[in-house]
Amino acid sequence: MTEVIAQLSMSLDGYIAGPDSGREHPLGIGGERLHQWVYGLRSWRREQGIEGGAHGPEDDLLADWIRRPGAVVMGHGMYITGEAPWGDNPPFHMPVYVVTHIPRAPLVKEGGTVFHFVTEGPEHALALAREAAGDKDISLAGGADLVQQFIRAGWLDELLLHVVPVLAGEGGRRLFDNVGDKQIEWRKTQVLDAPEATHIRLRAH
């Protein structure tokens, strides 16, 4: 059964991006600290077309996650901030459905990535992604606002948090703001502690 999955790096104080995230600072000011743990792993480097890298339990966790999705859903803000760094060969290699208010034709990139711009809202983007993914899962890439919408709607099945031991301070994007006033419970299914991050896999009840 196709599931909706998300994996996000988060600071100890709950931020997934630093202040002033945008084209100039795709991860926000100081936000790159949240992703340092991944850059040396073999599976991440392979997705970027870079040879070498470390392997072990942390790399195995990431490699399994990379294999699972057959389509991606993301918000317009994430697309705008990532468009330049991703370049002509973005790291998705599958259909990507961008939730936006701005209509435009699909954008075909190298490596199998096709950006589809969906103006009918996140539920319609999710339906399109389900059709495209087949028997694989759907990766909810972000940003924070879209993840919060999916949590409020009960559409997110599994969340992998990479908790990094830094305090991001105020002004960035917090993951769990605006998720409503309903008590939400997750079931912890895996914890992997590594030098630069603690990885916590959660499933929705």
TrEMBL record:
Q: Which segments cross the bilayer?
A: none
InterPro entries in alphabetical order = DHFR-like_dom_sf, RibDG_C, Riboflavin_Biosynth_HTPR
Residues folding into a coiled coil are none
Q: Do you know which Pfam families this protein is assigned to?
A: RibD_C
- Show the GO MF annotations: 5-amino-6-(5-phosphoribosylamino)uracil reductase activity
Q: Give the superkingdom in one word.
A: Bacteria
Q: Which Gene3D superfamilies match?
A: Dihydrofolate Reductase, subunit A
Q: Where is the Bacterial bifunctional deaminase-reductase C-terminal domain?
A: 4-194
**PANTHER family assigned:** BIFUNCTIONAL DEAMINASE-REDUCTASE DOMAIN PROTEIN (PTHR38011:SF12), DIHYDROFOLATE REDUCTASE FAMILY PROTEIN (AFU_ORTHOLOGUE AFUA_8G06820) (PTHR38011)
Q: What is this protein called?
A: Dihydrofolate reductase family protein
Q: What is the lineage of its organism?
A: Bacteria, Bacillati, Actinomycetota, Actinomycetes, Kitasatosporales
